[in-house]
């Protein structure tokens, strides 16, 4: 029975070590990839429409609070006002991601950076016009970590394209490795 204080101290040390490992596992450092799908929206004088959009992304989580992410996003096609044509756009983006952990599994995040976009305007009987540029993008989201390697994210982002704003609401799955 003299070993019970040593045994109790050992069990307590193991339990505290396991708890600290679990807290760190909730926000792993390292590389991640993912994909998302949702709805792109444009609300301008020449177009007020939405379409299915998707995104694939990859990034690196430097620590539990800061990461960097690159993504390809296809916004789909939206109809121009009075059905005179359609606008199709896609983009490559690079953003910094700031994360605020609320619990071990649930966190919020903000992102800001730049994107390099391409847009094609198609008008019947006139033809197609292409435009491209580099502009700011930013967004915010919530993330729930199911396991150490799989998370579900809900995100709302804005992509500026010259004087036009394209919004994107999506659900994403993130895989950490």
Summed up, the domain count is 1
Mean pLDDT: 85
| Overall form | elongated
CATH topology term: Porin
* Biggest sheet statistics: 8 strands, antiparallel, barrel
Between the first and last Cα atoms, what is the distance in angstroms?
Answer: 45 Å
The top level CATH class name? Mainly Beta
SS-derived structural category:
mainly beta
Total strands: 8
- The helical percent reads 10-25%
Encode the helix/strand succession as letters: HEEEEEEEE
CATH architecture: Beta Barrel
Query: Any low-confidence stretches, pLDDT <50, length ≥5?
Result: 15-26
Beta-strand proportion: over 45%
Strand order of the largest sheet: 1-2-3-4-5-6-7-8
Given the structure, what is the number of helices? 1
Q: Return Rg in Å.
A: 22 Å
Task: Give a quick set of tags describing it.
177 residues; mainly beta; Porin; eight-stranded antiparallel beta barrel; 1 helix; 12% helix
């Amino acid at each position: 029975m003299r070993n019970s204080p040593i045994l109790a101290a050992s069990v307590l040390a193991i339990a505290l070590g396991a708890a600290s490992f679990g807290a760190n596992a909730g926000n792993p450092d390292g590389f991640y990839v993912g994909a998302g799908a949702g709805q792109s929206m444009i609300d301008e004088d020449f177009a007020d429409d939405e379409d299915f959009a998707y995104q694939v992304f990859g990034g690196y989580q430097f620590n539990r609070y800061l990461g960097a992410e690159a993504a390809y996003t296809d916004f789909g096609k939206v109809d121009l006002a009075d059905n005179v044509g359609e606008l199709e756009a896609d983009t490559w983006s690079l953003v910094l991601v700031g994360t605020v952990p609320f619990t071990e599994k649930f966190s919020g995040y903000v992102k800001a950076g730049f994107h390099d976009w391409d847009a094609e305007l198609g008008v019947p009987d006139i033809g197609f016009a292409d435009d491209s540029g580099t502009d700011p993008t930013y967004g915010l989201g919530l993330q729930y970590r199911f396991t150490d390697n799989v998370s579900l994210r809900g995100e709302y982002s804005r992509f500026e394209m010259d004087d036009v704003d394209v919004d994107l609401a999506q659900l994403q799955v993130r895989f950490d490795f």
